[in-house]
Predict the 3D structure of the following.
Amino acid sequence: MSEVANRSGSAAGIDPRAAVSRHDRPQLVSFLADAQTESAVRDGLADLMLETADMRRGGIRAAITALQKMTTPRILVVDVSGEDEPLAALGQLSEVVEPDVVVLVVGDIHDITFYREVTRGLGAMEYLAKPLTRDIVARHFGPFVRGQTRAGVVLGGRMIALTGAQGGVGTSLLAANLAWHLGTERNRHTVLLDADLHRGTGAFLLNTAPSPGLRSAIETPDRIDSLLAERAAQPVSDRLHVLASDVPLTEIPRYAEGAATSLMAALRKRYNFIVADVPFNGGHFSRDLLELAQQRVVVMLPTLVSIRDALKLLGLRSGPDQGERAIVALNRLGMPGGLQRRQVEETLGLKVDIAIPDLPRVVSSATNIGEPAAAARSPLRAAILELTTLAAANGLMDMGKRGEQAAATTSRARRGWRLFGGRG
């Protein structure tokens, strides 16, 4: 059965060493549970390494602990032998690594279904069942060390675009709190992208400063790389950044064709999640961002005008990586003069996915001091947790003890989205 789990598939010449030019990333780090496996991996890759591999003794639990404190390598070899729930452990590993890491898995399970869940479901590049030999490692892990990945695999993070049915519905507040929750409480590499170049509200809500980097990125996309994108984003915490601009109202930035695609490609190499606050103003930048998102969220109020404009947004064509329709978030339910939820849903012709009560005191207090409202226990925090579950494709982030069957079901249900490597 060893050969059943030892197959590499077709390869396309994409060099992961060129994908991210950060000089601080080690080329390869391994966490292997026994001396025989470590020797096979070292010998099988010896002729392919440009630098000395960092070989560490220990399995996936050691990897999770170490990678919380160290820079994610370009290639990570990890051993899941002896784990009661190896898929759950791999889900936990995904929370502490950067999204473009090439993950190669070693284990003691000789089963084709498990192989498919690890590679096609979770997005690891390859799985090899023990015992390993030098030749097996060179044949199946070697292509990835040489800079080859499977054809059709796109490495990188997930983009969630929030758009208001109209101005003032609370889109920026929800986007900022969602990004804060993913980056701070879920510990995922997250960037909040504020696509309103003139206001920079996202930076204000997270108590940081806008920068000119976003404007430069959309005007000169040929200069975009992952380093430029990271320098332009302002840090809020170790794993949360904000990319926002405050262009004077008297100036109109020039949007270069394809700039949104180049910007997303750079950001997805660095961040697990890009939370984009996208005002739908009909401009090319907004339209392109909505097209590129993996998940769209339409934010609306319980009013007839908001229902009318929400229907327009819901009628937009879905992007190639999106689900059947956007998530609908009904904000300020119970506001003075507002419609009831039943009335909103009857007029929309569909159920709203998330309903957030009117919370003027909670929102105003948090906004004035530049702190996320979701940090405190409130209905808004509950809504952000629900939005995370619906929009962030994070079913495997919270697997815990749910077991292998739940992991397999979740990975299949997420329309091809994978924890490692992004979209397959």
Remarks:
- The two ends are 26 Å apart (CA to CA).
- The longest strand covers residues 158-164.
- Confidence is low (pLDDT under 50) at residues 1-21, 394-416.
